[in-house]
Amino acid sequence: RGCYQVNLPYASVGAIRVTPTWNVIKGEATCVLEGTTGSQRTKAVLNLEYQNPTLTVVHALDDRHVIAPEISLYNAKIVYQWNV
Length: 84
Description:
This protein is mostly beta strands. Helices cover 0% and strands 57% of the residues. It has no helices and 7 strands.
C-alpha cells in the first residue's frame, strides 16, 4: 500500500491523492483517487475496489453538517449519508 499526494494552489482543486493497494491473498488490486477543494469542504473519492467500485462526493455544509452521496459504479445504487 502506498500513497501519493499533490497539493495544488487552486481554489477548485486543492489536492489530489492516489492510493493504490494490492491484496496479496486475493490477488486483487484497488486504487482510491481523491480530489479535495482548496477550502477542504468538498472531496470527491473514486474508489476502484474490484468487488464494489464507488464514487462519493463528501461536502461539509458547515462544521457539523455533512452530506455524502455514494454511487456504486457496479450497479448504479445510490446511498446517501447525512450527518446533521
